Amino acid sequence: MKAIICRISVILLISFLTTSLSGQTNYTPYDYIPGLNRDYKPAYNADYPDWGKMLYDFPINFTEVTEAFETWRLNNKKEKNALIRYFKIWSRTIEPYVMADGSIRIPELAQYYKELRKTQISAHQRKQERDEANWTFLGPKETYWLNDSGSDDPPLSCPWQVNVYSFDVATTDNDILYCGTETGYVNKTSDGGLNWQLLAPEYPFGGGVTAVAVHPDNADIVFASAGNQ
Asked: Engineered SS bond to 205: which of 50, 135, 217, 226, CB 3.0-4.6 Å?
């Protein structure tokens, strides 16, 4: 009996260590910075170029990673894959935290969310000022690929322009749907998707809305989760 328990304990320990090592390999502290969606990060592959492997190390130098990517890109202008996409999202999110020497200063998350909460509370006070400002949206209304190749042809439209992260349908009325977007907004339709209404445009959710759930008995109530919250 003791031998069986010992073997089970060893198996559980190996499983725990394997899971831990796997997690350490795929994610770094940088991937937990608000604004990054870790689900977009592909699993580590030993065949990745040097700049790609750097994304799985900690700490790293932002300047060295971006220079390695740009050098690699010169000979791989037409290549598109999940790693390249994640790098572009990663670099855009990380850039505000880069120091002069290329090192990356990870923000204090507790303080970050404290300040975010203050902003959310004060957002309602600014709503009236924004309503009275009488702004009109002009554009752009369409997103295009970057012209990485330097081609003279106009770039094509990006297929993920809307980039909807989450979606739910009301059980009480299937014409009522909610969606959350990468840009941190929640939208609602009451006619099956023909027309959409932006909800709480003045409210800063703190990142991409990764989950929405409609109340099972009241379609006017929706729960949303954004950023790393």
From this structure: 226
Domain range annotation of the chain:
2-97, 164-226
The pLDDT of 55-66, averaged and rounded, is: 97
DSSP characters over the chain: -HHHHHHHHHHHHHHHHHHHHHHHHH--GGGGSTT--GGGSPPP-TTS-HHHHHTTSSS--HHHHHHHHHHHHTT-TT---HHHHHHHHHHHHHGGGB-TTS-B----HHHHHHHHHHHHHHHHHHHHHHHHH----------B---TT--SSPPPBPTTSS-EEEEEE-SS-TT-EEEEETTS-EEEESSTTSS-EEE-TT---SS-EEEEEE-SS-TT-EEEEETT-
Distance of CA 121 to the CA centre of its chain: 23
- For the ranges 58-67, 135-144, 146-155, which has the lowest average pLDDT? 135-144
Q: What does the pLDDT look like over 175-193, one tens digit per residue?
A: 999 999 888 889 999 999 9
pTM (whole model) above 0.70: no
